[in-house]
Amino acid sequence: VFFSSIVVRLHGDEFAVVTKFPLEEIKRRIDLCIYKIKLTVEAGLLPDIFKFNVGVADCEEDIKLTREKADFMMYFAKKDNNYIQEYNEKLWSSKLNHDKFLADILDDIKNDTFTYFQRHIHNVKNSKSVISEIATRDSYGKSILTKDNYKELRDNAHLRKLDIYNLDYLLTKITNLLNGMVLINLDYKSLVSKKDLIEYLSTMIDVNMINPNNVILSININDICMDVCDDVLDMFKKLKKIGFKLCIDKYSSKTIDYLFENIDIDYVKVSTEYWKESEKNEKTFKLLSSKIKVLNESSNTKFIFGCIENIDEFKYIKDKFAKTLGDDILVSGNYFSD
Predict the structure, then answer these.
(1) What HEC string does 149-207 produce?
(2) What are the tens digits of pLDDT across the range 243-277?
(3) Which of 21, 137, 160, 205 can pair with 115 through a Cys bridge, CB separation 3.0 to 4.6 Å?
(4) What is the tens place of the pLDDT at every residue in 50-83?
């Protein structure tokens, strides 16, 4: 199909084609490849699930850079469920920013240059601060764990490194400096990945004279599947046994109930999207209210509503939930900022 071109097998099922054909001709010839593959599949010579993706980039003097650009476009085409993606400067810039972000995280871990921000969690009845939530910032003081960044860090396994680093640093350097309860945010995958987690934490508690009863581990279990629930449950039980308080982060209607049915959870941070939707939708409110009541009665669980921006949202939480659960409803957000 690509005559008068250089075709090189890179590895496995990846090939590089260097050609003088213009983009539209390349597309036409890719369509011809698809047609020929279809005929081969119909003849029973290839499985009918056979697919391929193409990334196209202009050939530059730096052939390695050209290949990197074409590779990235190919993987973007696959991710976007397209068979071909021509070079796009905006996509490439996004990729470079992404690579720099991940590299900066590793540098901050290596050089101990993270900064930390203390966010207060208040009792809804009297607005008294009862928990200090510690949020991680980069060396410039910017937020790291935005929704998009969180996914990038998780997908690249950098979140595990960040979580374990934070756990070590916050427990040994920060918690004893603060009065009262301290909340540390973590991802369940990070904790499960550390095989000696309990021994590691037990030693840290003893060496640094930490009181784990003052530490709440707020764990994000989004996308957890039943296959690993028993492992996570076992980990939760061991964490509670050595004294830590447990909090389930980003609780929503999709959160698996299995963990709550088998262990008492001390705190639940209700997903911002979930409680704000309940403010608009009576059906959602009834579901959330019912779940909260059951968990509170069975386990004496306290509930944290975050990202409260104004007095109307504060009044909604106070009027709708605090009347029945009182001190077991906690709140945080910009509304409480000094």
Answers:
(1) HHHHHHHCCHHHHHHHHHHHHHHHHHHHHCCCEEEEEEEHHHHHHCCCHHHHHHHHHHH
(2) 999 999 999 998 988 999 999 999 999 999 999 99
(3) 137
(4) 778 999 999 999 999 999 999 999 999 998 889 8
Compute CA distances 180 → 135, 212, 219, 296, whole Å: 17, 11, 20, 22
The predicted-structure confidence for 135-160, as pLDDT tens digits, reads as follows: 999 888 888 888 888 888 988 889 99
Q: What's the Cα-to-Cα distance from 165 to each of 116, 173, 291, rounded to whole Å?
A: 13, 12, 34
DSSP, residue by residue, 319-330? IIIIHHHGGGEE
On the 0-12 / 13-18 / 19+ scale of CB atoms within 10 A, 102 is: middle
Name the token pair of 29: 């010839």
Q: How far, rounded to the nearest angstrom, does the alpha carbon of residue 68 sit from its chain's CA centroid?
A: 27
Strands 115-123 and 329-331: antiparallel
End-to-end CA distance of the chain: 68
pTM here is 0.83
Query: What angle separates helix 282-299 from helix 272-280, to the nearest 10 degrees?
Result: 130
Alpha helices, H only, 43-157: 63-79, 89-111, 147-155
272 token code pair: 């911002």
Provide CB contacts within 8 A for 228, sequence distance 6+: 192
Task: Please count the other Cβ atoms lying within 10 Å of the Cβ belonging to residue 114.
Answer: 18
Q: Using CA of residue 233, residue 238, residue 239, residue 244, what is the dihedral sign?
A: positive
Tell me the average pLDDT of the chain.
92
The greatest distance separating any two alpha carbons of the chain, rounded to the nearest whole angstrom, comes to 78
What is the number of residues in the chain? 338
The Cα–Cα gap between 5 and 20 comes to 7
